[in-house]
């Protein structure tokens, strides 16, 4: 660009000139979005009202733009505004050497140049309609010709619009002398960070905006900030990047002074102004100097690695100090510094994904995006060790660059056991920056606790760290603000490198005397402390992996080893081997009462020490122990949340747990000697998980278990002596009774309103699914189940759980399928399609066509579907059922598909049964008269191939509701159309129907044999609307009475269900009278019923009326 052009203070990089109706919603929107992504500032005219003359704001915007982009389109010349805009652009081109780039969007450049073709006709029309003089028309023509002669972009030269925009953006960058810096070429993912920052910076706004970049040490904050500074500097009159060295240099002269020292603040401001204004040795005598000097300047200020608020207050204390459009970017590990200064536009820098982290590492280690052959697994392991932290990827990748495979292999053991010095030094700054000793202690505890627990819940942290006067909640919040931990999904997360650093700090405190360390992790150190009795009161936690002990066949613990560690809170002994290597003397009788976590696999004693006091215990885990009982008597367990005694085959009794009022999970799997649970378990009001698979001698559960209102999951897998279905809380969501001796599932299982999974696999004694009828209800409907009328907000939602009946060899399959229960998903064993299913098809992706009756109030179809899946081994797959409603002409309406993923199948034949309901789009109801549906089922195996796991056949049955009228009232799954009807009677009734303008109302009621139809007619008359006459109601009552008299006397003794509805378009009523043997349907004129959502008693018969939308009757 020329010197005169580059010396101007440009406000915008780009001014786009365009015809909105042609490109605003297409090309222009994509173009502006890409400009924003590249941090190229563009003028946007969204708020300007256009007329024939140019707005002064628009004229100024053209003058303030380095480059004008003229987007010629078919209707560009139809706007006098656009043509005048073009004149102003050429004026600025001549006066300020402004650059002009034309884009010919779906138009021939020669037509613009010569004002010919359709473009020329539109131009002529514009000239005439605005009464322009020849001179004015000449100026327009000259402008069009001059700009069209400039080399520009034409979409026909590119494969697609995205490529066109990319090339235009690159051309703009070159013309702005903004060729992307190569300083950040090896930083993979930088463009994504810049794009996210672009939206926060909102560069087109005139406001002074402060934006924060926040994240942990080593995550790449400074790199992002420097890339931004490089890209943005050109847009501002003044610019400065303040790093730690800038601040430290000033602090040297004020060593020992208070951080809030007045003179130090003045010195900070003086050096700051000297740098940003390019003037040496500016002296400042008051703290308002920054505002005095910069209030009229548009400046860019970046403050990196901020850790003191005094720097913010001194240099960027108020937004009023800076000119319009200024941007201040503050980078810190401490979020509180940002929010405390009123900075709420904050970008939290995320860790890169696994794929991106591997690419970043490979750039450092191999100078390419992927690892070479023979380095794939090694590269993945290094990235995993670095925890995807960009600093770790950089340091480790750079150190391995140019090294051969042998060097990598020899380096790996040291990498696994230690922390690189450069990484540690950077991360240590974060720890040293923690303000209080209490917060540092909480950090060390959390770093070490991750060795004890795989997952740390916030509530567990509060309980485990509840000591002295610690404010754990506030400490967690402060550590979060400093990016040392993250709180997600109610759990505490800490980066693996920070964990390593925290544990190294603990170890380095007393490396020569491990008995004085807070936490012990080294197996040799622990063996020395436990065998030689050298522990001290400083020891808070011990984690021993017995598998790491090479010199000892068994670990013999000194009988008084724990007496010297009275403050021990965390004790965990683990092993992957199925053997006892921990030896305790018979006289061993002491564990510290301070213990909060006690975990010991293969504990060798028959009982815990008699003197053990468990008042502080939060987690008790004694898996595969030799315990026969835990302790004698009733102990206070106010803090206990989790008890895991799984695999303890000798355990014969569980102690009284009535005082463990906070217990939430109880694991007793594989406790094969356990015969019963204590009755006190009924007092555990917070118990949510009871896990007892393999308790093969358990015969009955205590009656008090029904009181466990918090119980969510109960697993009794393989409890082979359990014969009765457990009478438990109705709030349970997962119930696994597979492999039990249960013979029947009681009807009251339908009251389990939250039940999602009922597993009865391999219940060989099971004969009946129930003698009654199941019907599960839930306030929210799952995604894979639709109610009959999706447009009616008044209907309740119904939901059925997943049920597994595989290998239930005595189960009456046909009886199960005949039930009127709503199925969610039912798994059964079998290789053949049950006779129950009336429509069948073979093979994957086959289809079925099902006819619809033309008398539906609104069309929908409710189905029971069965897929026969054959698998040669344990497999899994996805099932998808598509449905289209069609009319005779082939017009169709697509429905939301039923889809279920990751369904597991056992070896052999599997029957997967489910209920679903389909309905067309509401807007299609008025346009189309559907007469059939096409169904297509797809099965996709997830593991294995189509030969080892495949769909053999599938079938459906259209469901009809033969239940009582009372059940119809509240059940949205009740069919609103009748599948068996007397079509002749229906046609006769249609021919005699009257057109009456009324809304749709559905009335369902049951009539006993003792009810007279005159009674019914009287009630109808009572409910009539003002617009209907007594005569019309009389005719209606007479016609219904006549119908009933025609019925066979025997059939009339059965209970009947009557459905009256009024399709909106035909304004007729439809009467459906149903008994146990047949259904008939009539359209009735002159019958109006008011809508009533409450049940009323009508002559001993339940009556309910509901509003419902229905499709027009096109019959």
Highlighted features:
Toll_tir_struct_dom_sf; alpha/beta; 1115 residues; NAD+ nucleosidase activity, cyclic ADP-ribose generating; disordered N terminus; 30% helix; 6-stranded antiparallel β-sheet; 17-stranded mixed β-sheet; flat; disordered C terminus; plant defense
Task: Describe this entry's structure for a reader.
Helix 2 (20-37) packs across helix 8 (161-175), helix 16 packs across helix 17 (376-386) and helix 21 (437-452) crosses helix 24. The protein is α/β, with parallel strands linked by helices and 1115 residues long. The strands form seven sheets. It has a 17-stranded mixed sheet. The chain has a six-stranded antiparallel sheet with strand order 39-38-37-36-41-40. The protein has 31 helices and 41 strands. 30% of the residues lie in helices and 19% in strands. The longest helix is centred in the first third of the chain and has 18 residues, at 20-37. Strand 6, helix 14 and strand 7 form a beta-alpha-beta unit.
Main sheet characteristics: 17 strands, mixed
Low-pLDDT runs of 5+ residues are 1-6, 777-798, 961-1115
How many beta strands in the DSSP annotation?
A: 41
Outline, from the CA principal axes?
A: flat
Q: How confident overall, as mean pLDDT?
A: 78
Rg calc = 39 Å
End-to-end Cα distance, whole Å, is: 75 Å
Number of helices: 31
Helix content: 25-40%
Class of secondary structure makeup: alpha/beta
- SS strand fraction: 15-25%
Domain TIR: 10-176
Protein name: ADP-ribosyl cyclase/cyclic ADP-ribose hydrolase
GO molecular function, one term: NAD+ nucleosidase activity, cyclic ADP-ribose generating
Keywords: Hydrolase, Leucine-rich repeat, NAD, Plant defense, Repeat
């Amino acid at each position: 660009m020329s010197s005169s052009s580059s010396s101007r203070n440009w406000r915008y990089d780009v001014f786009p000139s365009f015809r909105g109706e042609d490109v605003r919603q297409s090309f222009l929107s994509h173009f502006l979005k890409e400009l924003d992504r590249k941090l190229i500032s563009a003028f946007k005219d969204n708020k300007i009202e256009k007329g024939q003359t140019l707005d002064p704001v628009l004229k100024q915007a053209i003058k303030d733009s380095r480059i004008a982009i003229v987007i010629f389109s078919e209707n560009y010349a139809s706007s006098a505004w656009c043509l005048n805009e073009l004149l102003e652009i050429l004026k600025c081109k001549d006066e300020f050497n402004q650059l002009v780039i034309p884009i010919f969007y779906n138009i021939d450049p020669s037509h613009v140049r010569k004002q010919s073709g359709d473009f020329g006709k539109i131009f002529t029309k514009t000239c005439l309609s605005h009464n322009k003089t020849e001179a004015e028309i000449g100026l327009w023509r000259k402008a069009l010709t001059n700009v069209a002669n400039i080399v520009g972009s034409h979409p026909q030269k590119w494969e697609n619009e995205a490529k066109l925009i990319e090339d235009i953006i690159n051309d703009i960058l070159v013309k702005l002398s903004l060729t992307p810096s190569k300083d950040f070429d090896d930083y993979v993912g930088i463009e994504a960070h810049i794009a996210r920052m672009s939206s926060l910076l909102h560069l087109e706004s005139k406001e002074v905006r402060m934006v924060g970049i926040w994240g942990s040490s080593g995550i790449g904050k400074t790199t992002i900030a420097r890339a931004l500074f490089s890209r943005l500097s050109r847009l501002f009159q003044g610019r400065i990047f303040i790093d730690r060295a800038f601040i430290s240099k000033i602090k040297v002269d004020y060593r020992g002074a208070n951080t809030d020292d007045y003179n130090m603040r003045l010195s900070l401001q003086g050096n700051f102004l000297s740098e940003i204004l390019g003037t040496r040795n500016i002296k400042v005598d008051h703290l308002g100097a920054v505002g005095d000097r910069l209030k009229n300047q548009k400046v860019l200020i970046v403050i990196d690695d901020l850790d003191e608020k005094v720097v913010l207050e001194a240099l960027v204390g108020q937004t009023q100090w800076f000119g319009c459009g200024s941007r201040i970017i503050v980078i810190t590990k401490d979020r509180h510094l940002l929010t405390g200064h009123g900075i709420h536009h904050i970008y939290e820098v995320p860790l890169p994904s696994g794929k991106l982290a591997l690419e970043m590492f490979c750039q450092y280690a191999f100078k390419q995006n992927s690892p070479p052959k023979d380095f794939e697994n090694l590269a993945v392991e290094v990235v995993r060790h670095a925890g995807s932290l960009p600093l770790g990827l950089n340091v480790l990748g750079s150190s391995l660059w140019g090294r051969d495979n042998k060097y990598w292999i020899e380096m790996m053991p040291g990498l696994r056991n230690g922390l690189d010095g450069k990484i540690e030094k950077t991360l240590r700054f974060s720890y040293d920056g923690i303000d209080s000793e209490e917060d540092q202690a909480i950090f060390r505890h959390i770093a070490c606790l991750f060795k004890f627990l795989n997952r740390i819940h916030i509530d567990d942290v509060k309980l485990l760290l509840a000591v002295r006067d610690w404010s754990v909640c506030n400490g967690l919040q402060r550590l979060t603000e400093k990016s040392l931990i993250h709180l997600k999904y109610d759990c505490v997360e800490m980066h693996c490198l920070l964990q390593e650093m925290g544990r190294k700090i603990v170890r380095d405190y007393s490396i020569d005397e491990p008995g004085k360390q807070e936490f012990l992790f080294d197996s040799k150190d622990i063996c020395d402390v436990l065998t030689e009795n050298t522990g001290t009161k400083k020891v808070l936690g011990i984690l021993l992996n017995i598998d790491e002990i090479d010199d000892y066949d068994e670990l013999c613990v000194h009988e008084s080893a724990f007496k010297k560690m009275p403050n021990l809170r965390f004790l965990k002994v683990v092993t992957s081997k199925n053997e006892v290597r921990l030896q305790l003397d018979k006289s061993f009788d002491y564990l510290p009462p301070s213990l909060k976590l006690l975990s010991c696999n293969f504990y060798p004693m028959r009982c815990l020490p008699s003197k053990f006091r468990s008042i502080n215990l939060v987690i008790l885990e004694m898996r595969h122990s030799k315990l026969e009982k835990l302790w004698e008597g009733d102990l206070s367990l106010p803090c206990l949340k989790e008890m895991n005694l799984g695999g303890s085959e000798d355990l014969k009794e569980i102690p009284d747990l009535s005082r463990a009022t906070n217990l939430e999970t109880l694991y007793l799997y594989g406790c094969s000697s356990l015969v019963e649970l204590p009755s006190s378990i009924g007092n555990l009001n917070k118990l949510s998980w009871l896990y007892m698979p393999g308790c093969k001698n358990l015969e009955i559960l205590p009656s008090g278990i029904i009181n466990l209102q918090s119980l969510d999951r109960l697993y009794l897998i393989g409890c082979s002596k359990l014969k009765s279905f457990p009478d438990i809380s109705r709030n349970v969501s997962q119930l696994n009774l597979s492999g039990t001796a249960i013979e029947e599932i009681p009807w009251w299982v339908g009251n389990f309103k939250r039940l999602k999974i009922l597993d009865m696999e391999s219940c060989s004694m099971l004969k009946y699914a129930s003698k009654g009828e199941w019907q599960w209800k839930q306030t929210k409907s799952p995604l894979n189940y639709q109610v009959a009328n999706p447009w009616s907000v008044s209907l309740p939602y119904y939901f059925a759980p997943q049920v597994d009946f595989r290998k239930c060899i005595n189960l009456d399959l046909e009886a199960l399928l005949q039930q009127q229960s709503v199925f969610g998903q039912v798994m059964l064993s079998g290789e053949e399609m049950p006779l129950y299913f009336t429509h069948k098809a073979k093979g994957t992706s086959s289809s079925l066509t099902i006819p619809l009756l033309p008398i539906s109030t609104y069309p929908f179809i409710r189905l029971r579907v069965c897929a026969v899946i054959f698998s040669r081994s344990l497999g899994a797959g996805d099932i998808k059922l598509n449905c289209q409603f069609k009319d005779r002409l082939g017009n169709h309406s697509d429905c939301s598909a039923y889809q279920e993923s990751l369904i597991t199948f056992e070896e052999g034949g599997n029957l997967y049964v489910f209920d679903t309901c389909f309905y067309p789009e509401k807007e299609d109801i008025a346009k189309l008269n559907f007469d059939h549906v096409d169904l297509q089922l797809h099965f996709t195996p997830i593991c294995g191939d189509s030969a080892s796991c495949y769909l053999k056949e599938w079938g459906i049955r259209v469901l009809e509701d033969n239940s009582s009228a009372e059940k119809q009232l509240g059940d949205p799954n009740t069919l609103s159309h009748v599948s068996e009807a007397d079509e002749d009677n229906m046609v006769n009734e249609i021919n005699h129907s009257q057109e009456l303008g009324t809304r749709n109302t559905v009335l369902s009621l049951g009539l006993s044999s003792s009810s007279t139809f005159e009674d019914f007619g009287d009630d109808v008359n009572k409910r009539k609307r003002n617009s209907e006459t007594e005569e019309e109601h009389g005719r209606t009552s007479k016609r219904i009475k006549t119908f009933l008299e025609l019925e066979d006397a025997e059939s009339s003794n059965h209970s009947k269900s009557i459905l009256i509805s009024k399709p909106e378009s035909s304004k007729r009523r439809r009467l459906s009278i149903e008994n146990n043997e047949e259904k008939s349907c009539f359209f009735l004129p002159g019958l109006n019923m008011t809508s009533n959502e409450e049940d009323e008693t009508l002559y001993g018969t339940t009556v309910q009326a509901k509003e419902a939308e229905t499709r027009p009757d096109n019959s």
